[in-house]
Description:
13 helices, 8-stranded mixed β-sheet, Aminopeptidase
Amino acid sequence: MKKLLTLLLLNSIVGLAQNSDESQLATIYKSALTNSKCYSWLDYLSNSIGSRLSGSDGAQKAVEYTKIQMEALGAFDKVYLQEVMVPKWVRGEKETAYFLDGKKKTVVPICALGGSVATPKAGIMAEIIEVQSMDDLKTLGEAKIKGKIIFFNRPMDASQIEAFRAYFGAGDQRRAGAKEASKYGAIATIVRSLTYRLDDFPHTGWMGYGDIPKEQYIPSAAISTNGAELLSKTLKSNPKLKFYFKQSCKMEDDVLSYNVVGEIKGSEHPEKIIVVGGHLDSWDLADGSHDDGAGCVQSMEVANIFKNIGFKPKNTLRVVLFMNEENGGRGGGKYQELAQKNSENHIFAMESDSGGFTPRGFSLESDAANRKKIANWKSLFEPYYVHVFSEGHAGSDIEPLTSSKIVKAGLLPDSQRYFDYHHAANDTFDAINKRELELGAATMASLIYLVDKYGIE
């Protein structure tokens, strides 16, 4: 009988805790959907400041604006800046490109890839060879590649349900295509934009030259998917056609920038730190509303929600807006460097860097015990159609962060439309849905509330 009474008592306690958590999540979601600031913050970031590439005036204005907003919120015990030196890559004049099929001239949309060198002032014109992979370069060899432009035209794998998996699967040609093609004597590379959609927007993104000598650097540009399709079709009928493009981008000296940090000191365990954030920089073709203005304002909204509902975290909570995720990752590296220097103990880190679409769940980096613990909270999220608790990459800015025991989570919104906008000129505020943005912030706040309450294993 005594064992039965003990079991009933334990079940009763678990039930009360469950009801308490259900009520708290309902309060969090209600606050986000009725009393949020994230949409108006993003409106200003996007429409009044605009693009925020590291080292640009826009990036500095974004630092100043978000710091002021976080201070005015009244939710933080302190708001401060972390200095970080960042690369400054400048696009220059708008790129131009066309191909000649006999006497017929066809203009195609391109944009320089971030980090690329410029073409000569007069541009480059040469025969162009289509390839699908790095292995194709080996097959062709220097004899067929030297003096030519290489056209990487492998699309994202449409059979992949998880769009990010398809993106990373096709991304090597953008990230390292120029480096590898240069080894065979290519004079430039053109890369199919990384998006499922067929449109006229070229998508930029970071590329690198690795350890090859600077004199072997060759210019690299992205071509829109419609342009890639047309070029590929024309090459089949005329393999000797000539391709021309011109770009004037350049790398300048590193400049000083900042991570923006807002901190709420923990009421019981101030030495244990929970981080939530996104990256404040964006590419220069648009205002970066999805990538990653959305993640920044959602992270700020977590603090606003807690203030509005009167929730005081037991552990120290930091909202961090990282600088330079797009072309260097130095903001995340600097945050980790300072955390180590100060012997800080981070127990949980969350990042939102997958767009402001409807939240579906979380991607978790943790040990088995903590994955199981978090998965046990799944029923609390199901009323909000949040159901994915999978193992995977949590975020580039929090990737460097280490502690004796840390759990990391990335917000997983619906990804099917994300690459329609990613790194392109249409990543603008009009692509943001206010309610989806707010639901994402509520989902982030809910998981942080549960981690703060129950801790990690």
